[in-house]
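Q: What would this complex look like in 3D?
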Amino acid sequence: MRSAVIRAGRGILWYLREATGEAKWHEYADRCRRQGVTPMSRREFERHRADHKEQNPQSRCC
Amino acid sequence: MSTNIEERHEPTGGSQRLSLRSMLIWGAIAVVGAVCWAVLALSRGEQISALWILFAALASYFIAYRFYARFIAYRVLKVDDTRATPAERLENGMDFDVTDRRVLFGHHFAAIAGAGPLVGPVLAAQMGYLPGTVWIIVGVILAGAVQDMMVMFFSMRRDGKSLGQMVREEIGVVGGTAALIAVFAIMIIILAVLALVVVNALAESPWGVFSIALTIPIALFMGFYLRFIRPGQVMEVTAIGVALLLLAIIGGGYVEQLGLENALTLSKETLTLCLVGYGFFASILPVWMLLTPRDYLSTFMKIGVIVLLAAGLVLANPMLENEAVTEFGREGTGPVFAGKLFPFVFITIACGALSGFHSLISSGTTPKMIAKESHVRMIGYGGMLMESFVAISALIAASVIDQGLYFAINSPAGATGGNPEAAAEFVRTLGFTISPADLTNAAQSIEEQTLISRTGGAPTLAFGISLIFTEAFGGALAAFWYHFAIMFEALFILTAVDAGTRVGRFMLQDTIGNVWRKYDDISWKPASWSASAIVVALWGYMLYVGVTDPLGGINQLFPLFGISNQLLAAIALTLCVSLLIKHGKTKWAWVPGIGLAWDLIVTMTASWQKVFSDNPTIGYFKQRSVYQDAIDNGQLRAPARDMDQMQQIVTNSTVNGVLQLVFALLVIVVVVNAMVIWVKAVRAGGLPTTEVPHQPSRLVAPSDFFATKAEKEAVRRYEELIRAGDER
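A: Here is my prediction, written as structure tokens for the whole assembly.
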């Protein structure tokens, strides 16, 4: 029972991380670590992503 | 999941044998659905529970998803998980980005669903609950979800090309140009009508204005927080934002004590100016400041509200006050919008049943993020079913309130006179009873000055939701729930308006950029500012027309909105039919063909009536000539109160009529152009298309919401392989 609750909680947290795009940073940092490269700072990384959104507007429907 | 899917689906398509267990489960779902439909079909004159509608819908969705969507995916489209998707082939971590299917489902749903499915069904409730229910459920299964899924599939096979690009390349330059103009013009109308809904909900409502206005500083705060204080902490900042949002709603209850009541009691004209200004700044400011954080808030509220609404409906188990089919459906004399059940129910309810606007989102953004081809079923078809569920909930919310009150809220001010006595009398002439005191009490219960002629659907829905939530969750919170509902509707709409203005600006810059290169540079201020100004001026003008129309803006403009949305759907479905034929799958052309045929019948009939009807409440040009004749004779015609208003009606009717005619003609151009291609393609047994050739996929992922045992095992093996590869 308790382990089921913990698993569900983990699942929700995972989903929120992915859906909000927070997971992107972690993926990037992990990748850099595996490849032995120094990652850019989180601030730079998020700016880079924001710049991309600036150029590619997404439509919202009614 | 390359090998497994192939074994499971290729030889038999979607029709492998069902196990005994799943046969029992699906049999039970079918029985529940059949019983609910039977109750809806057979009860006349007696009150029934709203849950019959809810469960008829859910059972139908499950069956359609399991069987029809599967059939379309594996037999008609032949999704092929051995083929690498654009996300896998062109992955750049930005727009091309392999995304978990459940996460992408959330993104796609958040992008397609907004206030549309909440507003249309509320207005259509004037015809009774049954026409709307049938159209929302049957429409989504056979047309709306099919369109979304097919457009998504075809765009995915073309590296995420937009609808306009695909029409140009697959149908022809003439059709493509017509489609491009139609898309832009329809977007303007949609933005104007959505903004009109907000204006109508917020006018003379200081509480509403207070909470909505505060969303702007809240979003700005979130934007700066994410940019400078804690970059990337989206969950954290969204939690703060939502808490502030709830405080803003509660705080609105104290506007009187704060001495802000008069300052925030705004007229519709003032609100129009505010919205236009907001749209302009939202379009030119960097997105991180306003648009992105607003989107987080709006998405969070969207999911929260849907969950609350579903739970609230089941807990409250409300009875339907509405009739199954009202006389307005049969006679076409309804005060909310004019015209008979056919064709007007089918255009009033666009979002939730069939929404052409979705084809703009299903092509372009989402297809570039799909991990596996088979995911178009759950994301395209499933996402649209979810929106349809929202529409059904809205229809229920409008059908559980007292019908006298419903018509007092939704009839234009010209009819109700705007005061309780006249409104009660007007409602009596419609055949319902509500006393002036009851009208005043209803408004007081939710701490609004009045509910009379608060057209646009948002106040009605908010009132219905506050009834349901008060019943379901207890407490004396009717006023809070009402303003909570107004807040999220306004939030969805403003998010659609600011994002839409920006998209419109980019489209305009791109189009003008074809003749004047420099204009295409989106960071060149003169271009971005002027293009933004043009876009807001266009929808701002239509909004102003709606706000000041003596005949009632919703009454006049909502049909135009519905028809244009459905006309866009006609373009999208035409593209789907064309592509199936070009791919040599003429025998399956009926799949999008059913939706297309019905949609063309409905929209062309509605357009014809709106343009040529000699009933002045329906036909724009007849309306124009009736008022013009009266002006020539120096007479005043109700509901106009002076000659200026008479002149206004003449101008507005002309504008609306011309737009209506132009939209219909543009769609006819696209369809005729496509028919030429159909004939050519059928004769040749297929034609080459711009589909990207098969390239093998390495990626492994389950294909439906829940992974099967075999799929989990395959994913595990694949992940091991990846890890081994990394370590090497």
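A: To summarize the key features: Helices of chain A lie at 2-20, 22-35, 42-55. The CA atoms of residues 12 and 18 of chain A lie 10 Å apart.
Q: Very helpful, thank you.
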